[in-house]
Amino acid sequence: MRVWRPDWPCAVRRVLAQQRRGAGDPTLRLAPPGERGPHWRASRTPEGPVTLAIESRNADGEVHARAWGPGAEWASDQLPELLGAADDWTGFEPRHPVVREAWRRNPHVRLGRTSRPLEAVVPSIIEQKVTGKEAFAGYRALVLRYGEPAPGPAADVGLRLPPTPAVLQSIPSWEWLGMHIDPARSRAVVTAARHATALERIASRGPVAAPELDRALRSLPGLGIWTSAEVRQRTLGDPDAVSFGDFHVAKDVGWALSGREIDDRELAELLEPWRPHRGRVPLVLGAAGLRRPRRGHRASLRGHLPRV
Questions:
Q1: Does the keyword ATP-binding apply (predicted)?
Q2: Is the alpha carbon torsion for 171, 70, 77, 203 positive or negative?
Q3: CA–CA gap between residue 2 and residue 8 (Å, rounded)
Q4: Pick from 144, 142, 137: which is nearest to 122 by CA?
Q5: How far apart are CA 48 and CA 104, in angstroms?
Q6: Cis peptide leading into 172, omega within 30 of 0?
Q7: Nearest to 121 by CA among 212, 78, 184, 185
Q8: CA proximity to 49, closest of 145, 159, 161
Q9: In angstroms, rounded to a whole number, what is the distance separating the alpha carbons of residues 100 and 302?
Q10: Cross-strand bridge partners of residue 53
Q11: Which residues contact 298 (CB under 8 A, 6 or more apart)?
Q12: What is the spatial distance between Cα 128 and Cα 227, in angstroms, rounded to a whole number?
C-alpha cells in the first residue's frame, strides 16, 4: 500500500473527478460526495493494467492507495501527479475580482495528470459535437463491450479497463453505430489508436511537452483545438489548455466575469492576460460553482444506425 502525505489539503475526489466521463464511467468509480473513499480507477500503464483504490484520511491528511496488476508499482509512483502534486500555480494572478474571490474560496484546487493520452483521447473524441448524455453513454458502451475486467477486487464495483489500441482498431463499423458513435468519430478514434505509441512517448516528457502534444493531436484527422485541450488538461495537467469550442465554457466564463454569455472569440480575448494559466480561470470558476443558469429541454439520444 502506498501512503502519501500531500503538503496541501488534497481534495482527492474533486481531482479524480476531472478524469471521470459521466457518473457511469466504468473506468472510474468515485465514492459519494463527502465520503473519503475508496475511489476506484482502472488504467493501462506502460507496465500493464492496474486497479487503484484511493482513500483520503481527512484527520491526518494522508492519502492511502492500494494497487493491483502489472502496473501497480508504476501507478503507485505516479499517484501524487494524478492528484495534482506537480501542478505549479507560480505566476498565476487572479486579476479579476470574481476570480480572486473564487480562488480565495478554493485555494487548493489542483489539476491532476495521468500521463496516459489515449485514455483521454478516446472519450474526448466520442464527446465531440454531441450532448454529454449521448457521449457518456457511448463511452460506457465501448468500455463495457470491448474493455476488460480490471485486475484485483475491482469486479465487485464493476470497474473495467479501457479497450487497448489494437482492440479499438478491430471494431467493425456497424458496432460503432450500435454504440451511437457515428463514422466521423469512430474513424478519429481508430486513427488516434494507431498513433497511441507516439502520443504516449510525447506525454511521457511531462508538461513541457504540451505544445508538442498539441501539434501531434491536431495533426490527426478529426482532432481539433477542443479535443486537444481536453486531452492536455487530463494527460499533462496543462494549465493553459482552454476548451475553445465547448458548448458551455465560453458562456459560463462570460456569465461569471461579465454578466453575459460570450463566444469563443471573446473568450480568447478575455483570457489572454492569464497566459500561460488561461485554463485555470474556468477551473477556479467551476470549483466555485459559478456557472450560468441552465435553460431549455435536455436533448435525447440520437441514433446513428442507417435507415432502411
A1: no
A2: negative
A3: 18
A4: 142
A5: 40
A6: no
A7: 185
A8: 161
A9: 41
A10: 40, 66
A11: 131, 133
A12: 8
Are 120 and 208 in contact by the 8 Å Cβ rule? The answer is no
The CATH number of 117-236, from 3.40.50.2000, 1.10.340.30, 3.30.420.40, 3.30.70.20, is 1.10.340.30
2-89 and 117-236: identical CATH topology: no
d(CA 97, CA 103): 10
**pLDDT value, residue 295:** 67
Q: What is the CATH number of domain 2-89?
A: 3.30.310.20
Provide the residue ranges of all domains of the chain, joining segments of one domain with +.
Answer: 2-89, 117-236, 249-287
Q: What is the pLDDT of residues 157-168, one digit of tens each?
A: 899 999 999 999
Q: In angstroms, rounded to a whole number, what is the distance separating the alpha carbons of residues 60 and 215? A: 42
Q: Which three cell numbers stand for residue 145?
A: 463491450
Cell 470574481 belongs to: 98
* 163-186: pLDDT as tens digits: 999 999 999 999 999 999 999 999
